[in-house]
TrEMBL record:
Keyword Signal: yes
SUPFAM superfamilies: RmlC-like cupins (SSF51182)
Source superkingdom: Bacteria
Recorded coiled-coil stretches: none
Organism, scientific name: Bradyrhizobium niftali
Protein name (Swiss-Prot/TrEMBL): Cupin domain-containing protein
Keywords assigned: Signal
First and last residue of the signal peptide: 1-25
Length: 232
């Protein structure tokens, strides 16, 4: 009888541990998709969302399953509630600010200012580190480009295309995400092809794969400004 009770107790304990582990892994939804967010782009390396935090609308408690970055397009205050129920309202991230956040971040969020925060959220997929292309006449560093944060996942540049200054043809050395902070027109001049003018607006996102041959270019209106996130 005692052995039966002991065996039953052990099985119950093991089942409880398994259930607890399962709940820890599965009871929290991912951060996206959610109301107020729109998927902009997805490929083998990133998922990119254009997100807002409306006043008075709280998200569910959620977990960010991968490392991610936020690029602030519109300042706004957000209340952060931790898993233990404690909450705080930090200083709003300024326009153009880039923050890196590690995977496993758990919280709920709620806009608390009349002006809704808006940000481009770049989720970094967990993939084997790719071989970098041999960068020929790489675009960085250069005039108008300032390096921001850098770690083992990304290198971030704040870039302004100086009007009238031509940037030579180059090869993109790393996969890169470009998030435009200020609009304008960039003129590219491919060798042996027609000149191409492209207008970029605030919040536009561009993905440039490693090895891309980028024609010489210059700003003709603006000048445009963007955050360039090089993926490692």
């Amino acid at each position: 009888m005692n052995r039966t009770i002991l065996k039953g107790g052990i099985l119950f304990a093991l089942a409880s541990v398994a259930l607890t582990a399962s709940l820890k892994a599965e009871d929290l939804p991912p951060a996206f998709p959610r109301e107020g967010s729109r998927k902009v782009l997805e490929n083998s390396r990133v998922i990119i969302w254009d997100a807002t935090w409306p006043k008075g609308k709280a998200t569910l408690l959620h977990e960010h399953p991968v490392d991610y970055l936020s690029v602030t397009l519109v300042e706004g205050a957000v209340k952060i509630t931790e898993r233990d129920g404690t909450s705080s309202v930090g200083r709003p991230a300024p326009f153009g600010f880039v923050r890196f956040n590690p995977k496993g971040t758990i919280h709920a969020e709620e806009g608390v200012s009349d002006q809704e925060r808006r940000a481009i959220m770049v989720e970094l997929k967990t993939v084997p580190k790719p071989a970098e292309a041999a960068a020929t006449k790489s675009g960085f560093p250069r005039d108008g480009a300032t390096k921001g944060l850098e770690n083992d996942r990304v290198a971030v540049w704040d870039v302004t295309w100086i009007q009238g200054q031509r940037i030579p043809r180059r090869q993109q050395g790393r996969d890169a995400v470009v998030v435009f902070l200020k609009g304008g027109v960039i003129r590219q001049s491919p060798e042996g092809a027609a000149v191409n003018d492209t207008r970029w607006n605030v919040g536009d996102v561009l993905y440039v794969p490693a090895g891309t041959d980028v024609p010489s270019e210059e700003a003709t209106q603006g000048p445009p400004r963007a955050v360039v996130i090089e993926l490692k």
